[in-house]
Write a structure and sequence with these properties.
Chain lengths: 285, 182
């Protein structure tokens, strides 16, 4: 293939476009012919690499949609009256977009409807508040540490899943702890499952230093302190871990290294001392 | 993540998944009110059909499937889609690395909106859900060749709209208007 010449073979084009960024899709037997073409043609390989990079950027951009405030409450408010409606058939059409308020006569009936609506709103809001902020302990502190290490050692997040915190603010429900080292390179990603809940993982890793991840979930665990110790609560053959509770949020810091590497990622106030900057020259947030 | 089958109640699903569903809905509809409305429809439908969930691990995919069906059902007018001729012009792939690329969200959404619903769904499953072409084919019950073709055309369209320089005029005559097939 000549440089900058369009790739005209639709089979190759479709196969290249079907490869997801950061995934080993070329291992798919049906795409083996593409792998062979890439091995033979440096120009094609270079085009494939560029396509992968741009697809990674696009995948990240697809995730960047701000969610309107109060959406969960509004959904729950609509669900509450639907709960009282007659049960629909399984293949019923989705309900229409908006529900017109019932037309009634008489101020007493209107008042009753208003009161009922207010009650449902309050109930829905209370439900959200209870579910989000008061999830009770289901794990012991030892289990938390062990599960965090297991997650840390097994997860392989793709770059498309991660967001630079300085550019894309993390979800407000899962803020980073002020007790860990924060710098301009901190990245975050959603964690679909940790301790049975979804949450956020902050990749705190300072370039050139030990890998470190801070997991945040809404979970209350008995026996967990309210701040990380200067010594890790658990040290495995290659990881140091601590967990601490801040209100309904559980933080677990896992560092790939010993106690010294672990301490390098803490930022516990020791008195009237300014926050530290990471040693590698990364700028504090 | 929802923990036990018997703990599957819709309020919990709302708390856990409303953001992911809304983002998906926004990419498909391109409008905040439409996305919010579609999100509400998803959870209403979920409430009616909780018994269909096969496992708690599949809740997210299940909600996304409800979303896609509701979206496609809402697209009553079948509009022509711009589908480029199927060749990959290397010049249209930006040379900058992704970190340098600032993708204009408005242009991105406008480019997505130009696609017919069937193409939009495939594209969003690829980029937003991180589905392979096989998974897309299975979930949409489409032949793999159809998925690969739609994916290639939709991605090419997106890049043309997003990255071709203003001085580089897209030859619209090369774009073939085809009817969306479903």
């Amino acid at each position: 293939m000549m440089e900058n010449e369009p790739i005209r073979d639709p089979r190759i084009v479709e196969a290249m476009e079907a490869c997801r960024p950061g995934r080993d899709d070329l291992a798919d037997p049906d795409l083996a012919f593409l792998a062979a073409h890439l091995a033979e043609s440096p120009e094609l390989y270079e085009a494939h690499e560029r396509l992968q990079r741009i697809d990674g950027a696009l995948a990240k951009a697809f995730q960047e949609v701000p969610v309107p405030e109060g959406l969960a409450e509004r959904i729950l408010q609509r669900l509450a009256p639907a709960n009282e409606a007659p049960a629909p058939t399984p293949d019923a059409d989705p309900p229409v977009a908006s529900v017109a308020p019932p037309q009634t006569h008489g101020s007493r009936r209107r008042w009753l409807l208003g009161a009922a609506g207010l009650g449902l709103t309050l109930a829905a809001s209370l439900l959200v508040a209870v579910m989000v902020s008061n999830q009770r302990a289901e794990y012991g502190d030892d289990q938390v540490l062990e599960m965090a290490v297991r997650l840390f050692e097994t997860e392989t997040p793709s770059p498309a899943e991660e967001h630079l915190a300085a550019e894309t603010p993390p979800p407000k429900e899962f803020p980073i702890s002020p007790l860990v080292l924060q710098h301009a390179q901190v990245r975050w990603r959603s964690v679909p499952q940790f301790l049975g809940r979804s949450g956020v993982a902050y990749d705190l890793t300072v370039p050139g230093q030990a890998r470190a991840t801070l997991y945040v979930v809404r979970q209350s665990v008995t026996g967990v302190p309210t701040s990380p110790g200067t010594q890790p609560a658990l040290t495995t053959h290659n990881c140091s871990v601590s967990a601490w509770q801040s209100g309904s949020l559980l933080y677990v810091l896992v560092v790939d290294g010993g106690a010294r590497a672990y301490r390098g990622y803490l930022d516990i106030p020791q008195g009237p001392v300014a926050r530290r900057s990471p040693a590698s020259g990364a700028q504090p947030v | 993540m929802v923990e036990h089958q018997d703990a599957l109640d819709v309020a919990r699903l709302v708390v856990e998944y409303h953001q992911a569903v809304y983002r998906y809905a926004y990419r498909l509809t391109g409008s905040v009110p439409d996305a919010e409305d579609l999100t509400q429809q998803v959870f209403l439908k979920a409430q009616q059909s909780l018994g269909q969930v096969r496992s708690v691990e599949s809740v997210r995919s299940w909600l996304f499937a409800i979303l896609r069906n509701a979206f496609l059902k809402s697209c009553q007018k079948r509009r022509p889609v711009l589908a480029g001729n199927l060749q990959l012009n290397i010049d249209t792939i930006p040379e900058k690395c992704p970190d340098e690329l600032a993708i204009d969200q408005e242009r991105l959404q406008a480019a997505i909106a130009e696609l017919a619903p069937g193409y939009r769904v495939v594209l969003t499953m690829f980029y937003y859900e991180d589905c392979s072409y096989r998974e897309i084919a299975e979930r949409l019950d489409l032949p793999m060749g159809t998925v690969m073709s739609r994916l290639a055309r939709a991605k090419g369209h997106l890049r043309r709209r997003l990255f071709e320089s203003e001085g580089h005029v897209v030859d619209e005559s090369q774009e073939i208007a085809v009817r969306q097939q479903g």
